[in-house]
User: Which sequence fits this backbone?
């Protein structure tokens, strides 16, 4: 059996997050439509716009390592997005819907932060200087998105979810 290297693992993980970002890009408009709070709708739309740029940066990283941009099924993101779908169905029209959507979005963010942090560290180890810069930019965006979602949850969405439906 051939020995797998860190470079191989970097490429496989890059394909994983590429697939994940493309799935997230498709899910965000649906989440925005389902959200009741205007600020949450705006946050989902803003993240959709950011995700498009993140996909472009991933394509650049693929190019830098001489590989074709291609995804591979990411079971983790499939599961996280499936949970979001369940929340949309089970809590539709309820005061807790937005809190559930926001929690699902943060699960996505935490997955992305984990992946980009790992990819950045491996890119540094492998000497992919330009890739480090691109991955750092995305990691920073993901961290800022997570922080803004936390702020939105604490300032409005979670407390609105406590109200009893009439």
Assistant:
């Amino acid at each position: 059996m051939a020995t797998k290297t860190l470079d191989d693992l970097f490429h496989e993980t890059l394909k994983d997050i590429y697939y994940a970002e493309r799935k997230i890009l498709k899910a965000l408009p649906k989440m925005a439509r389902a959200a009741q709070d205007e600020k949450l709708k705006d946050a989902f739309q803003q993240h959709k716009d950011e995700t498009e740029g993140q996909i472009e940066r991933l394509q650049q990283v693929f190019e830098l390592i001489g590989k074709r941009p291609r995804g591979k099924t990411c079971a983790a993101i499939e599961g996280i997005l499936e949970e979001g779908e369940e929340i949309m169905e089970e809590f539709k029209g309820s005061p807790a819907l937005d809190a559930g959507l926001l929690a699902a979005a943060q699960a996505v963010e935490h997955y992305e932060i984990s992946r980009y942090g790992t990819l950045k560290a491996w890119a540094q180890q492998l000497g992919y200087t330009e890739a480090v810069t691109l991955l750092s930019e995305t990691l920073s965006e993901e961290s800022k998105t997570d922080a803004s979602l936390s702020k939105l949850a604490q300032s409005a969405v979670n407390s609105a979810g406590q109200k009893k439906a009439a």
Observations:
- The two ends are 64 Å apart (CA to CA).
- The first helix runs from residue 6 to 34.
